[in-house]
Design a protein that fits this description.
binds FE2/S2 (inorganic) cluster; binds iron/sulfur cluster; two-stranded antiparallel sheet; 7 strands; single chain; elongated
Length: 248
Amino acid sequence: MKLYLKIWRQKDAKSKGKIVDYTLDGVEGDMSFLEMLDILNEELVSKGEEPVEFDHDCREGICGTCSLQINGEPHGPDRMITTCQLHMRKFNDGDTIVIEPFRAKAFPVIKDLIVDRSSFERIQQAGGYISVNTSGNTVDANAIPIAKQDADQAMDAATCIGCGACVAACKNASAMLFTSGKVSQMALLPQGRVEATERVLSMVRQMDLEGFGNCTNTGACEVECPKGISLENIARMNREYMSASLKG
Ligand code: SF4
Ligand code: FES
């Protein structure tokens, strides 16, 4: 297939970016979206031009680093997959594809299609952990009975890979789906209850400090999330936050 690519190019965080047009021939349906970009970059390098910078690591839908806005949708037109799992068979010969970085004030562009998502790390650092006594009296986690439903819901919340698609999909650039997944995975387990009050207050405070917007219940985040993180987590985080605020 022959494709017409419109790609956001930006020299560095301070420069003004712009969309640049490229034509790429010989793209096959079995190629992944990132392999298609690899081929474009090989062509650019062979012509002595700067390759397009984009983030990637595992290329298996696990790490969450590949984050592209493709024709206006985070991770492209397919549901429940990351950009690296998107295949070119989803497109047709002669298609125009617009490729941009995720857009949010809290995700500043570093270069071309790469954004800085360290704001997510800081939210996680604010409370996304449990403290365990390792002085020799450590209790085996498996010795604490946990209801199957709670274990399943905690596991579902823990599948968030921190890709940021929820933020990119949201008209308010809200990080509520991400943060609520991280809060929920611990709030649902007895080990996470010990610091639950402090955790939710601290993670929500950091989320606000980073400049993410609020949730207005449009649900775009859930639709675009490659891991199917449910809006129920946002409702749970709001309950946790309300009860923590009353205790404080
Ligand atoms: S909630 Fe979903 S979309 Fe948001 S960061 Fe986690 S995996 Fe990505
Ligand atoms: S490169 Fe790791 S999820 Fe896509």
